[in-house]
Amino acid sequence: MSTRRGMREARRLRSRRIRAILAGGLVLGVGAAATLAAWNDSEYSTATFTAGKFDIVGATDGANFSGHATAGAAAGLNFQLPPTAMAPGNTTYALFSVKTVNPSVAGNLLLSAGTPGGTGLAAHLTYGVRTVATAVCDATTYSTGTVVVAAGSALTAGASGTQPVAANGAAQVNYCFAVTLPTTASNAAQSLTMSQTWQILGTSS
Question: pTM for the full model?
Fold first, then answer.
């Protein structure tokens, strides 16, 4: 009797295991069907980029601007007092205006001086540079301008700071140059000559 009872118990255990496996199979089967029924959708975005530019031009009259990108193409400054017969105590003034082109980004300007040429007059001359509110450069506007190079500086001196220049030619920077032969100039300065080239370097901001 115990043997038969043991066989019946064994058959019951096998039956429960089979039902458990089938039930598990049904659960897995339902999960697989749900995955196959998933939907999807997509969104895309794109952009195109173009670099801007930085470009400056200059004018000796405050109005007619063009490029002077090299020392060989430097604009000739128009000094009020022709600097061909300077006497002790004379100061002569000249304007140089700078602005960006349209289109151009904004930037900063830095004035520097080259090495003077000529026969030695540079050793006797001094100069200063200021920015002025209008395209007029004379003793009056110079006296109220903002210092770029201090008056009385050697011809080799450059600016210690920069000036901002607006984008797209919205506003120009007017530099007023003042070159002086001091009253203390010696007789040795007579008939000497001097040539000088200034650079205004623009850098985008």
Answer: 0.79
